[in-house]
Design a protein that fits this description.
165 residues; mainly alpha; Rhomboid-like fold; 7 helices; Rhomboid-like_sf; transmembrane helix; membrane
């Protein structure tokens, strides 16, 4: 994210034009690029810290499934946005953040073991309020990415609940 943001800033090239544009051929590239693109410093900072924290929790606590969970949250979220979202240029890693947070919250409740429940409660306390972001309250925020990420995280947690971690 920061490398792409730095290149965009230093070269003055608006890479955000390569965001996810639903149901367009050009928008297909956004399935890969949208989480790497940000609209400004505040936008990238608001995604950086949750990505670092949630990513560290995921990869440290559930290293056997972490890559699969991360890739599902990255790609399935963006595929859902491409299919169902309103016509707009969707950029940013918040869909991925919502996917990771949703996975970490629901995984403990599905598994019902102490470690996973403890992680779920910590993430719920720290990031539980993000679920207000799935509501269409602001036209400049891709609530569709938030909702898609939350849904992908939920179903990923449900699918992997019996996998030995």
């Amino acid at each position: 994210m920061w490398l792409v943001f730095s290149v965009e800033f230093m070269l003055g090239v608006p890479l955000s034009n390569f965001g996810l544009q639903p149901r367009t051929m050009m928008g297909l590239i956004g399935i890969f690029s949208a989480p790497l693109l940000h609209g400004g410093i505040v936008h990238i900072l608001s995604n950086t810290f949750p990505m670092l924290f949630l990513g560290m929790v995921l990869f440290y606590s559930y290293h056997r499934i972490a890559n699969k969970v991360f890739l599902r949250c990255y790609f399935f979220t963006n595929i859902l946005v491409w299919i169902f979202a309103r016509p707009a240029n969707h950029i940013g890693a918040s869909g991925l953040v919502y996917g990771l947070a949703s996975f970490l919250i629901f995984y403990g409740f599905f598994r019902k073991d102490f470690k996973s429940l403890f992680i779920s409660l910590i993430v719920l306390v720290l990031y539980g309020s993000i679920f207000y972001g799935v509501l269409p309250l602001n036209n400049y925020i891709s609530w569709e990415s938030h909702l898609a990420g939350a849904v992908v995280g939920f179903f990923t947690a449900r699918q992997y609940k019996k996998v030995k971690v």
